[in-house]
């Protein structure tokens, strides 16, 4: 009899989010330099080598035996068709970022096959300047975005002497559920705790400084909070970490505050250009790990902070300080909640999407947030895939009904790598956001004389 792994309530909730318009997977895009002297068939041989490595590592061997299952079934290696899961793609000439973004947009829009383990790996050749890429896609019920990138980085090596190893053929340091299990939708019996948590939010909104704390349901209506279809757009950008550190040191704010400030400027400009900038400031859901005291002692807790992006302010430096204060107030508020209340408030980010899925989409009258923005630290050392040097690691997150935009960043070496996912039929030309992000950084640097 096959082994089974029970589905957690977060797993079940994320599986229910799956629809043709909202495929509930997350992914990682990585770019590599071809090894010096690589022969013309290098990528073909790499795909073949990966396809011959048996699937032994969870969750790559997990499958839902039938719809409505309450547990994953663990498949033996011989029952997993790697020729299906491992795919070889190529970009048209000239193989630039535009061509790569177009391909990833199409791949990310395509749902996974629920009759098989819920993952795919595309190896992509034809990138300009002697490069190739991999795109690893996994269902969110198997692993969240941070875990997908963690799986990928754990499968890479710190030296170029080790042969390339498939992610599904080795053990991992990454704990797949550590982050996700603290960001869960509430069970029905938690109604009393839900009311208590919302009561704390209401009290904080009344008593904390207007320029600081924001909570759910205070976000303005925006073009980001609309019905979405299954089509996607994807764009990437790189930011030098040292430039953000210099801004933070100059203005006595955190690197993440500086990061949010330049995204705020980019979002403000984008909305102005399409004549959709709300009068009130946009509100972002910002996942963050905070150190807090629990009954079991001192431990790590992943929380969602609701933060003002101060998009109603024209001056970018003033905006950055308002964002910094909002983040400080949000962290202080979270520190006053118990674990169940944190889980409930975190789950609110996705609950409207689940409801809108059941009624076929729609637009909420009061958005909980306007956009989700996440920034996760990553390895500072160089990683290798065999003799191929990893250049960049880009997240590729999911979007849901009424949240048509997601911006996720991952650190690698001396850069922060942005992955921007948007609803193709709702948001025009989100590639401009990637361009505006760097221009916003330059604007703040000029204002500060850096």
Automatic annotation (TrEMBL):
It catalyses: an acyl-CoA + a 1,2-diacyl-sn-glycerol = a triacyl-sn-glycerol + CoA. Belongs to the long-chain O-acyltransferase family. The lineage of its organism: Bacteria, Pseudomonadati, Pseudomonadota, Gammaproteobacteria, Cellvibrionales. Residues 299-445 form the O-acyltransferase WSD1 C-terminal domain. Pathway: Glycerolipid metabolism; triacylglycerol biosynthesis; Lipid metabolism. GO terms for biological process: biological process involved in interaction with host; glycerol metabolic process; response to hypoxia; response to nitric oxide; triglyceride biosynthetic process. One of its GO terms (cellular component) is plasma membrane. Pfam families: WS_DGAT_C, WS_DGAT_cat. It comes from the Bacteria. GO terms for molecular function: diacylglycerol O-acyltransferase activity. The keyword Transferase applies. InterPro entries: Acyl_transf_WS/DGAT, CAT-like_dom_sf, O-acyltransferase_WSD1-like, O-acyltransferase_WSD1_C, O-acyltransferase_WSD1_N. The keyword Lipid biosynthesis applies. Its EC number is 2.3.1.20. Keywords: Acyltransferase, Glycerol metabolism, Lipid biosynthesis, Lipid metabolism, Transferase. It comes from Parahaliea maris. Residues 8-258 form the O-acyltransferase WSD1-like N-terminal domain. This is diacylglycerol O-acyltransferase.
């Amino acid at each position: 009899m096959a082994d089974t792994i029970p589905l957690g309530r977060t797993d079940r909730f994320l599986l229910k989010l799956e629809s043709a318009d909202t495929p509930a997977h997350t992914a990682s895009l990585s770019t590599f330099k071809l090894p010096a002297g690589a022969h013309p068939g290098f990528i073909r041989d790499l795909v073949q080598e990966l396809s011959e490595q048996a699937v032994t590592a969870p969750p790559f061997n997990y499958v839902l035996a039938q719809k409505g299952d309450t547990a994953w079934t663990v498949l033996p290696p011989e029952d997993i068709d790697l020729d299906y899961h491992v795919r070889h793609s190529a970009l048209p000439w000239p193989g630039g970022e535009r061509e790569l973004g177009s391909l990833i947009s199409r791949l990310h829009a395509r749902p996974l096959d629920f009759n098989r383990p819920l993952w795919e790996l595309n190896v992509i050749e034809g990138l300009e300047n002697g490069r190739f890429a991999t795109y690893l896609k996994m269902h969110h019920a198997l692993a969240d975005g941070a875990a997908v990138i963690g799986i990928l980085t754990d499968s890479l090596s710190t030296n170029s002497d080790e042969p390339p190893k498939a992610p599904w053929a080795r053990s991992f340091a990454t704990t797949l559920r550590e982050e996700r299990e603290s960001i869960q939708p509430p069970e029905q019996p938690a109604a009393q705790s839900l009311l208590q948590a919302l009561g704390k939010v209401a009290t904080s909104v009344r008593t904390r400084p207007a320029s600081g704390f924001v909570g759910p349901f205070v976000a303005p209506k925006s073009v980001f909070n609309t019905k979405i279809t299954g089509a996607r757009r994807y764009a990437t950008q790189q930011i030098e970490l040292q430039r953000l550190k210099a801004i933070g040191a100059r203005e006595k704010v955190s690197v993440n505050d500086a990061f949010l400030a330049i995204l705020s400027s980019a979002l403000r400009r984008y909305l102005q250009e399409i004549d959709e900038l709300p009068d009130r400031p946009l509100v972002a859901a910002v996942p963050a790990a905070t150190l807090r005291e629990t009954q079991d002692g001192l431990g790590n807790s992943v929380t969602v902070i609701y933060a003002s992006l101060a998009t109603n302010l024209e001056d970018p430096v003033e905006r950055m300080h308002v964002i910094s204060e909002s983040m400080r107030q949000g962290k202080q508020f979270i520190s006053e909640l118990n674990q169940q209340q944190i889980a409930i408030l975190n789950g609110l980010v996705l609950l409207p999407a689940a409801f809108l899925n059941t009624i076929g989409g729609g637009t909420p009258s009061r958005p909980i947030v306007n956009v989700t923005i996440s920034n996760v630290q990553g390895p500072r050392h160089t990683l290798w895939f065999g003799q191929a040097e990893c250049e960049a690691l880009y997240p590729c997150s999911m979007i849901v009904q009424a949240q048509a935009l997601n911006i996720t960043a991952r650190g690698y070496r001396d850069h922060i790598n942005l992955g921007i996912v948007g609803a193709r039929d709702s948001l025009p030309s989100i590639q401009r956001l990637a361009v505006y992000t760097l221009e916003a950084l330059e604007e703040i640097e000029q204002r500060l004389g850096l």
